[in-house]
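Field reference: sequence -> structure
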Amino acid sequence: MLNLENNHPSRASISSHTLTSKFLQWSFTLLYAYGILKQVNDISQLEDATLLEFEVVFAIVFLAIVIVRYFYMRRVPTLIGAPENISKVHLWFARSIHVGMYFSLVMLPVSGLMIAFLFSLGFKDGLLQAAAMGLHDFSASLSYWLIGIHILAAIYSRLKGEKIWHAMVPFWNKDRTNKIPDSFIKIESFAFGALEKILNLYGKKDAKA
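Structure field:
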């Protein structure tokens, strides 16, 4: 059976993320945006020893913050502000997106450090460097897609009048009326409900096997 129970407090008992959660969220958002804007576009730029050292330090700090944020946020219920009767499949999808984002955000600095390490050893091109750069590009693209999905889902929830947005975002919080057509919400509820029944059915079959 699909089991998403945990020892977190009930979502209904928490109206907002803690100040620490919000600080980690928004400080990391700024750090991620800065990393995207200042990224090295040509590996030959790493010939500059000062730039190479800066990139290494930035990658280490970035990685450390991602890890700290991951372990801190594991203590927090998924989708604070969501209705208490939210589908377990909905929660599973949300957690899968979160895990995917953390994976891509860990692999970004790790692959960046691999590139810097190989470059410092004299591997400015070749198979190893190409593999490291390919992993870095893949991690960046994956993070763009998953963060984009995360943002769109948050906006959709906000338009539904749910409190998920309000729990983390400090603006656009006054009007909480539902602006999504009822037909959309019914389709969403039907889809998640059907998926939950299918997964529970397969879970029962596996338990009997």
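Note: Residues 30 and 199 are 38 Å apart (CA to CA).
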